[in-house]
Amino acid sequence: MQPKFVSQFERTFEIEQELYRYMHLASPPMIASLVILCVIFVINLAMMLFVGVIYANMAVFAMCVIVLFVLLLRYRLAVQAAQKRFAEDTNNKGVVTVTATLTDEELISESSDREEPVLILHSELTKVFVTKHYYMIQTAEKMVYVFKKDAFTVGKEEEFLPYVRQIVENNKRRH
Q1: What pLDDT is stored for residue 158 in this prediction?
Q2: CATH of 3-11+96-174, one of 2.40.160.180, 3.40.630.10, 2.30.29.30, 3.40.640.10
Q3: What pTM does this model have?
Q4: Which of 2, 14, 43, 105 makes the best surface tag, with the fewest CB within 10 Å?
Q5: How large is the angle between the packed helices 54-90 and 14-21, nearest 10 degrees?
Q6: 89 three-class SS
């Protein structure tokens, strides 16, 4: 089983921050929801100012503000919980080095704080998304495995994303 791509890096809280930022603020469904909510907010504000139907639109206006507040609060609480888990996971372990390997058949995630590597068959890969510094691969169990950009020691980084997207597409066609 020859490695096709290998990314080796030190695990920091930056990974969790980028993952939660993507899930709560930057994923395509979330962006669409936020855009729709903001459009409703602006239309209601304009109607209250120019049409004068203040009482009729106050409920919708308040709902937009509440929903935006809840979304941002939910994001902040998720990041705080992740930060606490991260501190517990790495406590007294020093620097944690991660080696993520992708072969023709599986994804292998090795970490200096684990004794055994995690092996994931290609058939388990369901989604790939890109953040500022990482390629994140999601499995059927909703676990996320990370390959850091600019940290590839085997394989060409520019070939990585198309390769993983092809695997995910093939898996979607099978199911």
Answers
A1: 95
A2: 2.30.29.30
A3: 0.76
A4: 2
A5: 150
A6: helix
Supply angle C-alpha 96, 114, 109, rounded to 5: 80
What is the total residue count of the chain?
Answer: 175
Token match 């993520």: residue?
Answer: 100
Tell me the per-residue pLDDT of 134-146, one tens digit each, with 9 for 90 and over: 999 999 998 999 9
Using alpha carbons only, give the angle 141, 29, 172 rounded to the nearest 5 degrees: 45
Token representation of residue 45: 């504000």
Cα gap 41→35, rounded to integer Å: 10
Residue 28 to residues 35, 38, 50, 145, 161, Cα–Cα distance (Å): 11, 15, 33, 20, 18
Per the CB < 8 A criterion, the answer to whether 167 and 145 are in contact is no
| Tokens found for residue 97 | 């080095």
What phi and psi, each to the nearest 5 degrees, are found at residue 38? -65, -35
Handedness of CA 85, 89, 90, 96 (dihedral sign): negative
103 strand-pairing partners: 3
pLDDT at 71: 84
Separation CA 56–CA 75 (nearest Å):
31
The DSSP letter of residue 96 is: P
